[in-house]
Amino acid sequence: MPTLPEVLTDETKKSQVIKDCCELIDAEVKDKGGISGLAIKAGFGAVKGIKPGFVEGAVEDMLPEFARVLDPLYQDARGQEKPISDFFAANANRVADALLEITDAKAKRAKNTIAKGAYEKLRGSAKKNVEAAAPRLGKMIEKYSR
């Protein structure tokens, strides 16, 4: 059984995986409502405004690390013959912790003050938002795992 890094960073699929990740992020941001949703949308808008392709570049940069930290969950889902989206939904806490470990480290090293500031302002609510995205992320991964 291939590893998740092998699945998501395969050169024949990688550009489409990055595009799908960016679409997933856009959809998650769009779905946010209320006051916290406004803050998320404003922060994401600021990050997207840094320069064209900034988000895509960040996704491409972090994709191998994301795939590596999610691989144990991916392997568990596959081993239990469960849909990855269902498994990620049931283990959203673990998905969020794994991904936020990577983004926290990246934010600490960030040189761009706009990106760093937006991340720091939104970090308090990040876990619940990443948990909410776990099923959608699992569904996207399923697309490439067939």
Give the terminus-to-terminus CA distance. 11 Å
Q: Mean pLDDT score, rounded?
A: 93
Structural class based on helices, strands and sheet pairing: mainly alpha
What is the radius of gyration?
Answer: 15 Å
Enumerate how many helices there are, as a single number: 7
Description:
The chain has 146 residues and is mainly α. The protein has one domain (4-145). It contains 7 helices and no strands. It is globular, with a radius of gyration of 15 Å. The model has no long low-confidence stretch (mean pLDDT 93).
Give a brief description.
The protein has 146 residues and is mainly alpha-helical. The chain has one domain (4-145).
Task: Explain the layout of strands and helices.
Layout: H1 4-8, H2 14-31, H3 34-48, H4 54-79, H5 84-90, H6 92-109, H7 113-145
Helix pairs in contact: 2-4, 2-7, 3-7, 4-6, 5-6, 5-7, 6-7
Salient structural properties:
146 residues; mainly alpha; 84% helix
